[in-house]
Specification:
four-stranded parallel β-sheet; 5 domains; 35 strands; 39% strand; alpha/beta
């Protein structure tokens, strides 16, 4: 009986592969984000049944070590390598202007994530790195803030005279305690794509931004939420009469009165609300909705980590059930395609598991689902093929 090797790793180093290892298996499958090889390994692998499935392959000599950094990384001039190194970074990487010599000393870099890079080092980064993500360049000498940065009274007190502050996406100034004229007197400047300013701050702060910055003028006293926001009626009332949501807004059935009392509502993302709230949304004095508005049939459930839908759950909500942004959804085997089509809807659910007979119905009522999987044909627990050696690791050397 054939013997198989199945390797699943983020990084797989094949440079030290030996023929005695490869000859033990009738087939070898390697699934990796980054695979490291050399001419000797590639010649040896060509003589054996190896299936290589990877995003990126690099050739490195035996003297070069492979190092990995995970999470947010601040890369400065002190990040010089010790000897010959190839660096893999998983997460946000912020490069400081003094890091040029350190970057040049690496044999190469693979960056899986967003990179914030000073203008002066953009060409150095391009020559040294394989970037699987977005590269944002910022002016040399600027103070790098969060992608969505808030200018409040505390920020104003600490602002350094004559400094340029940069944010990749936007700057938000809605705090009445901020003194724009005080910031101007300090010589503080801002650089970003767009700035959200209240009416009372716009006059003094608008001149502090680059001429090409998009300015959004907001009502005084507005509440700002930078992420997705799910609200019931009581929570919505606490935000006052003006609300800006930079992510998605999700509302429950009891929001009708609070929603109709809003004077200003701006949502950058999508809006999800029960069909019963359609008139209340229309009653808002001023609305700016940049995304789509989804009117949800039946009972909406938001952000469930795991939920199983069976007959009893559907019976509890005869008007139907809509699941929004749930991580894992399982459909009970007792459900029929008619149950799914008539009583269920899905928006942006990450994974929906169901029987093969329900797949077509799920696809018909799912909007933005990450995947629809079926357990049909899987081996029961404890009955894995004894002739398959499986290796799951962050990093593996064959």
């Amino acid at each position: 009986m054939s013997k198989k090797l199945d390797i699943n790793a983020m990084f797989c180093d094949l440079r030290k592969t030996q023929e005695s290892t490869l000859s033990q298996y009738d087939s070898i499958h390697i699934n990796a984000m980054l695979t490291v090889t050399n001419p000797r390994a590639r010649e040896l692998m060509s003589r054996y049944p190896i299936e290589l499935d990877c995003m990126h392959t690099i050739d490195l000599d035996d003297e070069t070590t492979l190092n990995t950094l995970n999470g947010k990384t601040l890369f400065t001039g002190r990040n010089t390598p010790n000897g010959r190194q190839y660096l893999v970074i998983n997460g946000l990487m912020t490069i400081t202007p003094d890091a040029g010599d350190a970057l040049r000393q690496y044999m190469g870099l693979t960056i899986n994530g967003k990179v914030l890079c000073p203008d002066s080092l953009a060409t150095v980064l391009a020559s040294k790195a394989q970037v699987n993500g977005k590269v944002e360049t910022y002016p040399d000498g600027a103070v790098v803030l969060k992608s969505n940065a808030v200018i409040d009274r505390a920020f104003a007190l600490r602002a350094e005279p004559g400094r340029l502050y940069w944010a990749a996406q936007r700057l938000i100034a809605v705090d009445d305690a901020v003194d724009g004229e005080e910031l101007a007197a300090k010589g503080v400047r801002f650089s970003t794509r767009e700035a959200y300013l209240t009416e009372s701050l716009a006059g003094s702060m608008a001149p502090l931004f680059d001429p090409d910055t998009r300015l959004v003028i907001l009502p005084d006293g507005i509440a700002v939420e930078q992420d997705d926001l799910t609200l019931n009626g009581a929570a919505l009332r606490r935000f006052g009469d003006s609300l800006l949501v930079l992510g998605d807004l999700r509302l429950t059935e009891d929001c009708a009165e609070a929603l109709s009392n809003l004077e200003y509502l701006q949502v950058e993302g999508d809006v999800y609300l029960p069909e019963s709230l359609a008139d209340a949304l229309d009653a808002v004095t001023e609305t700016i909705l940049d995304g789509d508005v989804h009117y949800l049939a039946g009972k909406p459930l938001f952000d469930k980590l795991h939920i199983t839908v069976d007959k009893s759950l559907l019976d509890a909500f005869p008007d139907g059930l809509t699941l929004v942004d749930c991580t894992s959804v399982s459909l009970d085997g007792s459900l029929t395609p008619a149950d799914v089509l008539e009583h269920l809807a899905f928006y942006d659910c990450k994974d929906i598991a169901c029987s093969a007979g329900l797949v077509s119905a799920v696809n018909a009522v799912a909007d933005g689902a990450g995947s629809v999987s079926t357990p049909d044909g899987e081996a029961p627990a404890g009955e894995a093929d004894a002739n398959v050696q499986r290796i799951d690791a962050m990093s593996y050397t064959l």
